[in-house]
Structure formats: C-alpha cells, structure tokens
Specification:
Elements: E1 3-9, E2 26-27, E3 30-31, H1 32-40, E4 47-52, H2 56-66, E5 71-74, H3 81-86, E6 98-103, H4 111-122, E7 127-133, E8 142-146, E9 149-154, H5 161-164, E10 168-177, H6 178-185, H7 201-208, E11 213-217, H8 229-249, E12 253-254, E13 267-268, E14 273-274, E15 279-280, E16 285-286, E17 291-292, E18 297-298, E19 301-303, E20 308-309, E21 314-315, E22 319-321, E23 326-329, E24 332-338, E25 343-346, E26 349-355, E27 360-361, E28 366-368, E29 378-380, E30 385-386, E31 391-393, E32 396-398, E33 403-404, E34 409-410, E35 419-420, H9 432-450
Parallel strand pairs: 1-4, 1-6, 4-5, 7-11, 12-14, 13-16, 14-17, 15-18, 16-19, 17-20, 18-21, 19-22, 20-23, 21-24, 22-24, 23-25, 24-26, 25-27, 26-29, 27-30, 28-31, 29-32, 30-33, 31-34, 33-35
Antiparallel strand pairs: 2-3, 6-10, 7-10, 8-9
Bound molecules: uridine-diphosphate-N-acetylglucosamine (UD1) and calcium ion.
Calcium ion is lined by residues 105, 225, 227.
Length: 451
C-alpha cells in the first residue's frame, strides 16, 4: 500500500521569539522538521508533502536538502491543524493509499511508533491516532474512549471537568486512508474555543459515519513538542543524552560522555575512542578503532580506521582521512583527502588538497588555496616530505617521493623524486653579531648618560 507523509510546519512559533520559523531551529545540528521527516521514513513514504507558512522559502530549502522530491505547499493563514492538512487535498487528489500526518515541531516520535500506527491502520482501523499517558495532561487534547474503542478527542480548552481528569492525551499524529482523511476533513467545522479547524475532529466524524478508529500509544517522551527556547534547550539535552548512550552501547569509548556533542547523523564505529570535549557537527563518520583526541571539532568528514585526530584539531566539510592517518594539534583540514598512513601533525592548514600515501607534512605548512577570487587545488604524491613552514601556492603539484625544503614558498610543480628549495640563501658573517651587540650596548649607554 502506498503511503503519503504529510508534515505540518506552518505554525508561527510565536513563543520562540525568533525570526527563524520554529521548525527550522536546529536540534542535533539539523532543523526540527528533519527529525519529524526522518521518523516518517519508517513507512517508506512514496510522497512527502510539507505544509509551510511562515518562512516558506527557508522551509523549502531545508526540506529539499533532506528530501529533494518533497512537495512544499503554503498555508497562508494558520486556521488550525485540520485546515493545514486540508491544504494537501489537491496535491494528493489522485493519491491512492494511506496518509500519515506528523508535526514538524515534534522531533522525538520513534519510527517504530509510526510503523505501529500504519500497522493498526492495515488491521482495519480507518482512523488511527497517537496517544500517550501523562501525569500532567495540562493543555493537551484528551482522548475519549467509548465502549467500542476510540470515540472522540477533545481539546483541553473545550473539555468538561470530567474530561479534563482524563490522562490519556492526544499526541497529534494521525494515520488514515488519504481520500477518507480529506473527505472527513471537509465535514468538520471550527465551532470551538479557538475557532480553529482541529485535525482530530475527524475521529468523531469517522465514528458518526460508522468507521472504526483506534489509538496507538507511545511513551510521553516521544510526543515532546517544541514551543519555546527553553523546551528546545531541554530537547537538545535529551537528544545528546540519547546519542551518548547509543554510542556507548555500540562499543565506542567516551572518556567523559557529558562533554561530547553529537549530530543527528553522527556515525561512530566500534572501539573508536572519543576523548573529552569533542563536537561532531553534521555529516561525520568515524570508523572503528579511530581516536578523536580532546577539544577537536569535526563536521562533514570521514575518519578511517586507526587514525588519530587532535587534540585541538578541526576537520571541516570534505575532509577525508584514510586509514592510519594522523592530524595533530592546531591543524585544520577542509575539502582534502589524506591517504593511508599520511601525517599532518602540527599547526597546518590543508584545504582543497589531495595528499598521497605515507606523506609527511611538516609543522606550519599552509596550502594557499585562495587568491581572493577563486579556490585552487594542491596535489601531493605518495611518500613525499613537505618541510616545515612550506607555503604551497595552489594550483601546484608535488610528485611522489618529492621534498620541499623548510620555509619554501612553492609556486611551481615539483616532479617525482625532486627536492625544491624556494627560500633566500643563508649568509653567515663571522664575528658580526658580537660587533653589533657592542655597538648597540654603547649606543644605549650614551643615551642613558644624556638623560
Ligand atoms: C496539538 C493538538 C493537541 C495535542 C498536541 C500534541 C490540535 C488542535 N491540537 O496542539 O490536541 O495534544 O498537538 O502536541 O491539533 N500547524 C500548522 N498550521 C496550523 C496550525 C498548526 O501547520 O494552522 C502545525 C504547527 O506548525 C505544528 C503542528 O501543526 O507543527 C501542531 O500545532 P500546534 O499549534 O503546536 O498544536 P498544539 O497546541 O501543540
Ligand atoms: Ca505543539
């Protein structure tokens, strides 16, 4: 059965007090709504429709980065969750299959939970909602069960005192046949305390038409919605705690887990060691047995087995480290490949470069990759030796087993096996230093007398 995923992301998020649309605030390095979309991947959606409103262009960019084929629709006025889903009716007019509605501001729903909702729908329940038990039902919608299952959902604002004492609450997500969903939505009104079209009113509508409805329950922690910066910070803490526990369980050593920060898609192999105070931005893969030493910052990079990075290293997007490589303290690598066994141990910048196998890059080496207008590449072969403080003025190629002398400014290619010296020749003047010292001493003494 085909499935369409509908992501609600049009709300203003007033309580975030931000120019950025709420669903674009990052959690674990990616926008909130990407978490919701990733949970939805559990049902392998054939079509993804995102309902945006505030900051629709920015939302579109973020959505496309995750899912290039997603359809982005605009809800110009935010008239409620039911009204938001209705915006997808035209785009899905010919769609035969299930629709699953998720909220862009609710990042922790587990894929397994969404799969359970889809399964309950497959079992014959026409409308499936997500519910959770909570000690503090507060302003959540209440789920009203009747003799034969789910009867209706009532928003807290519209509930009676009896209904308010119910602790089974609405998690917001819905699964139903797409065409039935739109047919039911077309019958609901907005005669309630908020004057909004409530998505969950389709439950009462379905029951009135003789359809069955069911609740799938999940843990309260999954339905945590983000409405304020405080909730966002709390969610980030929860996210990091989960990621740290996952890494430990997967056989990664974290010397001080609470000081290591992960992204949504950080992959770390077994027996890797992560020392204290390491930050993983998006797009990082660390293979097994690698060591990331303290105070390193990594994003968009790949570190192969048995490599050692840091302490105090920075790997930027496109850094590709082969097996058993070393990137040491105060070294920055960007858009560059280091092949097996190569080392850049101290105080260097390697950008837009390709370095062969077993090559040693001396302290203070800089790839001068930018001329103020364009970026240029540096290529270094296998088994080369780049002397300390070499400036590699790109575009430039250094051959296999070639050498550059310390302090050289290299702006011409160096062939295989050659030594390039590109610095002023040293001149040594015997006794000259002593003479100079005496002259300076005398000058100073004269000056002191005059004062
Ligand atoms: C909603 C439910 C509530 C449930 C709670 C669970 C309704 C009316 N209420 O309340 O029963 O307990 O979720 O977290 O459904 N959105 C739009 N367009 C709109 C309105 C909302 O796209 O016109 C989007 C928001 O961006 C958000 C989602 O729908 O991603 C939920 O809306 P929100 O206003 O946060 O609903 P809650 O008050 O949390
Ligand atoms: Ca909410």
């Amino acid at each position: 059965m085909a499935t369409a995923l509908i992501v609600l992301a049009a709300g203003q998020g007033t309580r975030m007090n931000s120019d950025l649309p709420k669903v674009l605030h990052p959690l674990g390095g990616v926008p909130l709504l990407v978490h919701a979309m990733a949970s939805g991947d559990a049902v392998n959606p054939d079509k993804i429709v995102v309902i945006a409103g505030h900051g629709v262009e920015a939302v579109e960019t973020a959505v496309r980065a995750y899912s290039p084929d997603a359809v982005i629709l605009r809800q110009t006025e935010q008239l409620g969750t039911g009204h938001a889903v209705m915006q997808a009716a035209d785009a899905l007019a010919d769609f035969e299959g299930n629709a699953i509605v998720v909220y862009g501001d609710t990042p922790f729903v587990r894929p397994e939970t969404i799969a359970k909702m889809a399964a309950s729908h497959d079992d014959g329940n026409a409308v499936v909602v997500l519910g959770f038990e909570t000690a503090e039902p507060g302003r959540y919608g209440r789920i009203i069960l009747g003799e034969d299952g789910l009867d209706q959902i009532v928003e807290a604002k519209d509930a009676s005192d009896d209904q308010l004492s119910i602790t089974l609450c609405n998690g917001g997500l819905v699964a139903a046949d797409a065409q039935l969903l739109f047919a039911l939505l077309s019958t609901i009104g907005n005669d309630n305390a908020s004057g909004e079209y409530y998505l969950f009113d389709i439950v009462a509508a379905a029951r009135a038409q003789g359809h069955s409805a069911s609740v799938v329950t999940c843990d309260e922690s999954e339905t945590l919605g983000i409405n304020t910066r405080t909730e966002l910070a709390r969610a980030e803490a929860i996210f990091q705690t989960t990621k740290r526990a996952e890494a430990l369980e997967n056989g990664v050593t974290l010397t001080a887990p609470d000081t290591v920060f992960f992204s949504f898609d950080t992959h770390i192999g077994r027996d890797a060691v992560i020392e204290p105070n390491v930050v993983f931005g998006p797009g990082v893969t660390i293979e097994s047995g690698a060591t990331i030493r303290a105070f390193s910052h990594l994003e968009g990079c790949h570190v192969s087995q048995q490599s050692v990075v840091g302490p105090y290293a920075r790997l930027r997007p496109g850094a590709e480290l082969g097996e058993s490589t070393k990137v040491g303290n105060f070294v920055e690598v960007k858009n560059a490949t280091l092949s097996e066994g190569s080392k850049v141990n101290h105080l260097s910048y390697i950008g837009d470069a390709q370095i062969g196998k077993r090559t040693n890059v001396g302290a203070g080496t800089i790839t001068c990759n930018y001329d103020g207008f364009m970026k240029h590449r540096t290529e270094i072969g296998d088994g080369a030796f780049i002397g300390s403080n070499t400036m590699l003025v790109a575009p430039v190629k250094i051959g296999n087993e070639a050498m550059t002398a310390s302090g050289s400014v290299i702006n011409k290619d160096v062939p295989d096996g050659a030594l390039a010296l590109a610095r002023a020749r040293q001149e040594t003047k015997p006794g000259m230093a002593r003479k100079l010292f005496e002259k300076l001493k005398a000058a100073k003494a004269k000056l002191n007398k005059e004062v």
